[in-house]
Design goal:
CATH superfamily of the largest domain: Bira Bifunctional Protein, Domain 2
Distance between the termini: 51 Å
Largest sheet: 9 strands, mixed
CATH class of the largest domain: Alpha Beta
Shape: elongated
Helix content: 25-40%
Length: 424
RNA sequence: GUGGGCGUAGCUCAGUCGGUUAGAGCGCCAGGUUGUGGCCCUGGAGGUCGCGGGUUCGAUUCCCGUCGCUCACCCCA
């Protein structure tokens, strides 16, 4: 029998489970601060749920199979379609905006690499039913506060923010036809990794003149006002720019100005974003994006959900955990054992078990030796499990109704009545 | 799917210019007696040297293949 786990899948040993639990706890705590409530859906869904949204080509990237009932099913690669279905079933009767979040385990059949496995947990946090840009600022603020709650500062990460409609308008003003928009976005997205010549070439293929392409290469250097000066006079584009400016204003009002930056080269690969897009990045550039999201006003309807504006983000546990480890932000776990109860001889066993159980009833984390070993070995065992104190029951103390309590860190020892152990 | 790097004990790694029983540190287990841990000492368990084939008198070592891990590319929900 092969005892290794599947490639890209993780075993969570206790120390890793502690980190995972910490991540989930902080996520839930911050989501709660923003008034989001948690939901979940099935990890296994009909294959068609994803094909309908992303097309047939996605099938090769899914964990999928035919079940015994002949149904084509897939382990969920993302939460949005399930979310759309669940929101759709209830949206009509719910006050808007809807604020829901989830921490699904997601699966994809791809070659694993740094920060990207075949399985991960991803916080999904979305607002449905609100089109105003205050909600854009709200969702970005929530993402930023997630990382702040882990102890990361504006020195360590930044939210890169842009707007797809604004950049789309800019590209259109430079001669990109609607049908070439996707290719042009893809080219711009490569600016930080590919040579200017390469990007220029791709833009020209998308219908951009060489002169315009050269001009577009300067995009990442532009601030928002400068960029607005180059988008022409299309009213929708100008409005998108104004909208984005107000998003930044709101974030500034939240006091989060140090965490955000306009980044026109950010377009995200996702075709379905309709407005604000953003990503959270480690400033040192050691990791891939920690978090990404934006506004997707037409997606819910497109996947069969309600026709409501929506926006949200996803934040995976893999990159985040690597970052926390690299920055020394993984909290120390409390000792698994608080009290270790020691019997000097087997005669004290019944009394010891009574003490053990009474302490556990009081919520203490308690252990004791199973094997009847020497007192020295029992202390050694207590030390190994990190016990905060040991409670020694010997014939002498027990005859007086007492026990010796030893603080393991200091070695300080005192004889106390059994009753006081169980009441303080 | 493409390419690079790496596979020796639970962990981190030595080592063998091809040669007999493959080592260390840490960790683990048991002792160092009869009521006190951390340090120390002694002993022990634990490895098909990733797997398969080839060359060879002999392969953990050389060659080929394969699997796995890992990094990058592609892609990215």
């Amino acid at each position: 029998m092969d005892l290794t786990s599947l490639p890209g899948f993780r075993d969570f040993y206790p120390e890793q489970m502690a980190l995972r639990d910490h991540v989930f706890t902080v996520w839930r705590e911050v989501a709660g601060r923003y008034g989001f409530v948690e939901y979940d859906g099935p990890p296994l869904e009909p294959l068609d749920l994803y094909v309908r949204k992303s097309g047939e080509e996605i099938v090769g990237q899914l964990y999928r199979f035919t079940d015994q009932g002949g149904r084509e099913v897939a382990l969920r690669p993302e939460m949005t379609p399930s979310f759309a279905r669940m929101v759709g079933a209830r949206a009509g009767g719910m006050p808007k905006p809807i604020r829901w979040y989830s921490i699904p385990q997601l699966f994809r059949y791809e070659r694993p690499q740094k920060g990207r496995l075949r399985e991960h947990f991803q916080l999904n946090l979305d607002i449905v039913g609100e089109a105003g840009e205050l909600s854009d600022a709200e969702i970005i603020a929530a993402a930023i506060d997630m990382l702040r709650a882990f102890g990361l500062s504006s020195e360590e990460f930044v939210a890169r923010i842009s707007d797809r409609e604004l950049i789309g308008g800019l590209l259109a003003a430079h001669g990109v036809a609607p049908e070439a928009m996707g290719a042009a976005f893809a080219a711009l997205d490569k600016l930080d990794r590919e040579s200017p010549e390469w990007v220029c070439g791709r833009l020209e293929e998308a219908g951009v003149s060489e002169r315009s392409a050269r001009e577009l290469l300067g995009i990442p250097e532009l601030d928002l006002p400068a960029l607005l000066g180059r988008v022409g006079d299309d009213p929708a584009t100008l409005e998108a720019g104004e909208r984005l400016r107000r998003v930044f204003d709101h974030l500034e009002s939240f006091g989060l100005g140090a965490f955000v930056r306009f980044d026109p080269s950010l377009v995200r690969g996702l075709a379905y974003y309709t407005g604000t897009v953003f990503e959270l990045w480690d400033r040192r550039g050691e990791f891939r994006a920690i978090c990404g999201g934006g506004r997707y006003d037409r997606l819910l309807a497109a996947v069969g959900g309600p026709d409501l504006p929506a926006l949200g983000f996803g934040m995976g546990d893999v990159v985040l955990s690597e970052l926390l480890k690299a920055r020394g932000l993984v909290p120390e776990q409390p000792a698994a054992i608080q009290d270790f109860v020691i019997c000097v001889t087997d005669e004290q066993r019944p009394a010891a078990l009574g003490v053990v159980h009474a302490l556990r009833d009081r919520g203490r984390r308690v252990a004791y030796d199973f094997a009847g070993r020497s007192v020295g070995r029992q202390f050694k065992a207590a030390n190994q499990v990190g016990a905060e104190r040991t409670i020694v029951l010997g014939p002498d103390e027990l005859s007086r109704g007492e026990a010796v309590v030893r603080e393991m860190s200091t070695g300080e020892e005192k004889s106390v009545p059994l009753g006081s152990i169980l009441s303080d």
